[in-house]
Write a structure and sequence with these properties.
The complex is a heterodimer of chains A (60) and B (207).
Chain A lengths: L1 H7 L10 E4 L2 E4 H19 L5 H7 L1
Antiparallel strand pairs in A: 1-2
Chain B lengths: L1 H6 L1 H12 L2 H4 L15 H22 L1 H6 L1 H30 L8 H23 L4 H17 L10 H30 L14
Helix pairs in contact in B: 4-6, 6-7, 7-9
The chains are: A alpha+beta (60), B mainly alpha (207).
Amino acid sequence: MAFLWSLASLISLEGKGHYIHWHFIYLSVANFIVILLMVLVFLAALFVPFPGRASRKESK
Amino acid sequence: MSTTIERQWTTRLRKRATGKLPPEKALPDTQPAYVASWIYVFGVATIASFVMVILSGFILALKGPQWWHVSSIGHFINSLHLWSVEILFFSMVIHLWGKFFMAAWRGGRTMTWMTGVVTFLVSIATAFTGYASQTNFDSQWITTQAKDGINATGAGSFFNVLNLGQMLMWHIVLLPLVAVLLTAVHVVLVRLKGVVPPFDDKTGAAK
């Protein structure tokens, strides 16, 4: 439990939020991290081998 | 007598439904080899998180706002509802990217693609009305920020974001009903037309 509390204190939720502003693009750092994670998971889904894929191909 | 039974709407509907989608096609034992990829997992991940959203939503509806604001179990179920929605959108967007880049509307799958698109838009509206129905400062901020934009589109004449009762009804009755129906149609269409094959597949399923 103490470990979880120490994790929570890594990111301060006090005060103003952080934003990325570049030309017309304006989004929060939190949303940017989520988008980045989605891209990473998407790439992983494309390239990480699916368990049992090789044996399925052999059996066909 | 048998002619009369043959002409009954229930008989005709059953024959048509089982003819187009027999049980072994509706709930197949195996899938084509190309489905053995992580990118095909995100559709079912979206449905799994949707089930969690509905279940946690049922409990929130049973107990009400006071409960989810003050009790620890209420906080937990409220958070479960929020995080299920986060995972739902996370999975749905990856599912969308995957299907977009494999042109999943190929092979007569236009309606499958379009029902997916409309379900995505309905989900955004459902999530928005959820944020508007939280009954806290966050929902007050969101609705007062959103009202001018929505009023500018003309939708404000029948969709008043500052009307909490209306937002709650849209969130827990109308939009979930539409989302569940569209998801069901989407899944039935996937079963009817089969899972879209990759571009380089030469098994004939891509036709």
